[in-house]
TrEMBL record, chain A:
PANTHER family: D,D-DIPEPTIDE TRANSPORT SYSTEM PERMEASE PROTEIN DDPC-RELATED (PTHR43386:SF1), OLIGOPEPTIDE TRANSPORT SYSTEM PERMEASE PROTEIN APPC (PTHR43386). It comes from the Bacteria. Keywords: Cell membrane, Membrane, Transmembrane, Transmembrane helix, Transport. The lineage of its organism: Bacteria, Bacillati, Actinomycetota, Actinomycetes, Micrococcales. This is ABC transporter permease. The chain crosses the membrane at residues 26-49, 91-113, 120-143, 149-168, 211-236, 256-280. InterPro entries: BP-dependent_transpt_permease, MetI-like, MetI-like_sf. GO terms for molecular function: dipeptide transmembrane transporter activity. It is a multi-pass membrane protein. It comes from Brachybacterium phenoliresistens.
From TrEMBL, chain B:
InterPro entries: AAA+_ATPase, ABC_transp_ATP-bind, ABC_transporter-like_ATP-bd, ABC_transporter-like_CS, P-loop_NTPase. Residues 4-252 form the ABC transporter domain. The keyword Transferase does not apply. One of its GO terms (biological process) is transmembrane transport. Keywords: ATP-binding, Nucleotide-binding, Transport. This is Peptide ABC transporter ATPase. PANTHER family: ABC TRANSPORTER, ATP-BINDING PROTEIN, TRANSPORT ATP-BINDING PROTEIN. It comes from Brachybacterium phenoliresistens.
Length: 308, 285
């Protein structure tokens, strides 16, 4: 009776040892979802029909010819979904990269150099932090005729970097006072090298976490804008699909195949990226790491065995 | 002969509490001289200004008034003059768990100062770094170079920190409580290492500590600080055996002295633990 749970526990720990410690189930599920969606956005557009080709057949449910059915104007939903995945991911990545650079510039530089520069950067960050993204976009969108991908991405980036900059600033403030930074000053390192080589690597976990967060919020933000008709003109995104589905009264006509796929993609990607974020959090802060169920059961069994 | 001289240095911090400003005098009118081959101990309690003096010497802070002179000339504040100053004056930090960057290997911590101060080229830097590790008794040196700080014990980390401070070939070494964060069992080893290096290199050393016993053992001169001021100074033995200032006497009394805990002594006598005669027979007197 006492040997059985022990061997089970040993088998579990041997299995866990084979995997690197950061490869948690959370990370693998989240990463798997994100990789699948990305591959779909990269590859599928080459194989689908023209997403804009109109057909007389009108709105038809899924069939052998149109796997995800057609829209009111007879356009293939699968083709639109493939291009929309590519469009949404493009917006998300552009915004996340821009937000990363902006937050790193204002957060790290201000935090490290301090003084009046820090005061000015903090003030600017706080002002941007309270800029409401959606109303700003509505104002800009109603003025600009040609809303290209870049314009939308820039506006989303400008309204989404501030929170990450504040986090980076406070982290930098804490790191710059540490002894190893003082020691590299004493060794004679130049300030830019102290920032890039001594401080930045210690900020990487925080930065990757805020990158993923920016990606999620950019894709959701773009979908929101497109849905109210202020999105990118001439490019398919998940939001624009939902916008046209709403206009075409897909819901009232029972055309679920038109609005469910883009909605499900948004939910799946958001969920996948959040799972990745949770596991990054777990790596940064081990206290948030939950013991896997199997290990918990094994410990429990060992305790029982000891009691018996 | 290298000498680093502090002349009447003051350091005042301005503290801001909302809109109210107040001043904190961390260091008041302190003067001393560090000469090659001699160790000066700076003793005082927490908050007495010891570490501020270390920061001032390392130019992490600048004195409010007073002067620092290296070989009689005012120290270089920026550019090439500052680099030259850092060639000559280096420091060992108190906490070896905080003074090494957790992201970088041990090798990185030694290669950078070697390259920055022109003590090695890209080709010779690994060999020079290994030599430094051998000098602080970390061997086999090659195996330490690629390790990360978290793989080392506190004593090993402090040896790495000492090796890093030696890398630029300094003439003056400031050791800010170099053993206070270490396990008691390795303290003596690290102190003996510092003493040996000081002898071999004829370093001028400032040993900052709160422990009078090691200050007496390892230094030639002792300065006792209290609330930012030097309250007593003199040859090490004089200060310990014949303290003049009230604060020094208090500090000496505060150190635990073997043979003063009567309950512990009684227990030890009952068990027949070997001990010095004057303790063993006190009960009979």
């Amino acid at each position: 009776m006492t040997t059985k749970p022990n061997t089970a526990a040993m088998a579990v720990s041997a299995q866990r040892r084979r995997l690197p410690r950061f490869l948690t189930p959370t990370l693998m599920v989240g990463g798997g979802i994100v990789v699948l969606i990305t591959l779909f956005g990269l590859i599928a557009p080459f194989f689908v029909a023209d997403p804009n080709a109109v057909d007389n057949m009108g709105m038809q449910p899924p069939s052998a010819q149109h796997w995800l059915g057609t829209t009111q104007t007879g356009q293939d939903v699968l083709a639109q979904l493939a291009w929309a995945t590519r469009g949404s991911l493009t917006v998300g990545i552009i915004v996340a990269v821009m937000a990363l650079f902006l937050s790193a510039f204002f957060g790290i530089l201000g935090g490290y150099l301090g003084g009046w520069l820090d005061e000015a950067f903090s003030l600017f960050t706080n002002v941007v932090l309270i800029l409401p993204g959606l109303p700003l976009m509505i104002v800009i969108g109603s003025y600009v005729e040609q809303r290209g991908l870049i314009l939308i991405a820039v506006v989303l980036a400008i309204t989404s970097w501030a929170a990450a900059a504040r986090v980076l600033r406070s982290q930098t403030l804490s790191i710059r006072g540490r002894d190893y930074v003082q020691a590299s000053k004493i060794a004679g390192e130049r300030p830019w090298r102290i920032i890039a080589v001594e401080i930045l690597p210690n900020l990487l976990p925080v930065m990757s976490s805020s990158f993923v967060f920016a990606l999620v919020s950019a894709i959701l933000g773009e979908a929101g804008l497109s849905f109210i008709g202020l999105g990118v003109v001439g490019t398919h995104t998940w939001g624009s699909m939902l916008f046209y589905a709403q206009n075409g009264q897909a819901l009232t006509l029972g055309g679920w195949w038109w609005f469910v796929p883009p909605g499900a993609m948004i939910a799946a990607l958001g969920g996948g990226l959040s799972l990745i974020n949770f596991s990054i959090d777990g790596i940064i802060n081990p206290r948030l790491r939950t013991a896997p169920a199997a290990a918990r059961t094994a410990r429990h069994a060992q305790k029982e065995a000891a009691a018996a | 002969m290298t000498t680093l001289t502090a002349q009447n240095i003051h350091k005042t911090y301005t503290l801001r509490n909302g809109l109210r400003f107040s001043k904190l005098q961390a260091v008041k009118d302190v003067s001393f001289e560090l000469t090659a081959g001699r160790t000066v101990a700076l003793v005082g309690q927490s908050g007495s200004g010891k570490s501020t003096i270390a920061k001032l010497l390392m130019q992490l802070e600048h004195p409010t008034s007073g002067q620092l002179l290296l070989d009689g000339r005012p120290i270089g504040r920026r550019g090439a003059a500052l680099t030259a100053y850092r060639d000559d004056v280096q420091m060992v930090f108190q906490d070896p768990f905080a003074s090494l960057n957790p992201f970088h290997s041990i090798g990185h911590h030694l290669r950078r100062p070697l390259l920055l101060h022109g003590k090695a080229t890209a080709k010779t830097v690994d060999a020079r770094a290994a030599e430094l590790l051998e000098r602080v008794n970390l061997s086999p040196a090659a195996s330490f170079l690629e390790r990360r700080p978290h793989e080392l014990s506190g004593g090993q980390r402090q040896r790495v920190a000492i090796a890093r401070a030696l890398a630029p070939g300094p003439k003056v070494l400031v050791a800010d409580e170099p053993v206070s964060m270490l396990d008691v069992s390795v303290r003596l080893g690290v102190l003996n290492l510092l003493a040996r290096l000081q002898r071999e290199e004829q370093l001028a050393m400032l040993y900052i500590t709160h422990d009078l016993a090691t200050a007496r053992h390892f230094s030639d001169e002792i300065l006792v600080m209290y609330k930012g001021e030097v309250v007593e100074r003199g040859a090490a033995d004089d200060v310990i055996l014949n303290p003049q200032a009230e604060f020094t006497r208090t500090l000496l009394k505060a150190a635990p002295e073997p043979g003063t805990n009567q309950r512990f002594l009684a227990e030890a006598r009952r068990r027949g633990v070997p001990m010095p005669d004057h303790l063993a027979h006190r009960e009979d007197q």
